[in-house]
Structure formats: structure tokens, C-alpha cells
Amino acid sequence: MSVHRVRVAKDKASLVQALIREKESRGTFETYADVIMFAAAYGGKHQKYVPITTGISNDPAPISLEIFLSRGYDWAIKLIAIAHWQDTSILSPYEAQAQTQRVTLIEQAANGGLELLGEALRGAVDYSDRLLLVLNQERYRKPNPPPNFDLSRFL
User: Fold this and answer.
1) DSSP-based three-state secondary structure for 123
2) Which of 8, 27, 69, 120 sits CB 3.0–4.6 Å from 20 for a disulfide?
3) Residues 133, 140: contact at Cβ < 8 Å?
4) Which domain of life is it from (predicted)?
5) Residue 1 has pLDDT above 60, yes or no
């Protein structure tokens, strides 16, 4: 059984690095896995699944699935997979292909989420403040009202 790794697109690597909290940067997240899961959840919520076509980043390097599992993200990966495929058979622990499909989906959702976050964070000096604004906007978003049903066309 091979070790699965979650890859980061080369064109999104600088954003992922900027979101990491280090001595010289004021990022928000502690690890690359945290950034990827946040972006995957954000991309999954907006149903933006973008395949990686620009190449794979070397920094950050592909992240082992074990890191996501050790941080407790296994349930989030499974929830994103169920929401996307509307089928619980994707959770099968007996099929290696199911795990490969989940990893691919997380890569695509994270890539789409990073695209959305890149647009939302464009021009921001402090990503933490802007991420709070994005989260508040999502929290208090009003659902679109259904269009009024026009009966005049039946007269």
C-alpha cells in the first residue's frame, strides 16, 4: 500500500507559504496541512474543484496523508468526499481506490479554495484580519431568495 500525499499546485505555493505563521511572517496557520484543509473546506463549500495543471510545488512539498490524519482532519476529508459524491461508498476502508479518490478530491478542493482565497486576500497587508472578514461574510451570508413565480404567462 502506497503512502498518499496531498500535492500543492506550483502557482498557489506562495499563497500557502504566506499563510503560515513563522518568525518573519504574520501568517495565520501553524502548518501546511492546516492551510490545505482550510482551503479544501472553503473550496468544497463553494463547490470549486480545480485540478492541478500548473505543476507540483516543491516548497511546500507534497504532504503525507498521515499528517492530516494525525491532526484530526480525517473526518473533514470524509465529509468533503461525501458532500461531493453524495455516496458513502467513498469511505470504504477496504478499497485503495477510494482513498486515492479522496486525496485527489482534497487536492482539487484545496486548489479551488486557494484560488478563491487568493482573490479575497489580494491587496491585504495582514491575512489574519482579511480571513476573519471572509469567515464573517460566510457566517452572515443571507441565502438568495427564490425568484418570484410569475403566473402571468399562464393567462
Assistant:
1) coil
2) 27
3) no
4) Bacteria
5) no
